[in-house]
């Protein structure tokens, strides 16, 4: 279950994907499969080849892309990998607004 984002944030994420960009959205998330995880970052792109190439730069496998029929296929980033990638992409603010992690922290 996702929560902690606005409809406008979701609309902007989808619009970025529709425009062929690598798009990030971070929100609170509850899933019984990952009881210790409280947030997830979804990184999507309509060009699956581009998304897979981007992911490989962070050690993500193309098989890990959540393929969606609606066109909003994405990687789910959790835990330390989420933190690492958001930091390296300059998007740590997305996580910091939901947690105690601050954008300037290392």
From TrEMBL:
Source domain of life: Bacteria
Name of this chain's protein: YneQ
């Amino acid at each position: 279950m996702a929560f902690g984002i606005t409809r406008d944030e979701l609309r902007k994420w989808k619009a970025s994907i529709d425009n062929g960009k690598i798009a990030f959205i971070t929100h609170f998330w509850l899933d019984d499969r990952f009881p210790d995880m409280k947030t997830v970052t979804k990184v999507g792109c309509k060009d699956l080849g581009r998304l897979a190439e981007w992911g490989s730069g962070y050690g993500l496998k193309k098989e890990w892309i959540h393929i969606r029929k609606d066109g909003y296929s994405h990687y789910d980033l959790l835990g330390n990998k989420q933190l690492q990638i958001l930091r390296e992409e300059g998007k740590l603010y997305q996580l910091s607004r939901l947690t105690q992690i601050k954008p300037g922290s290392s």
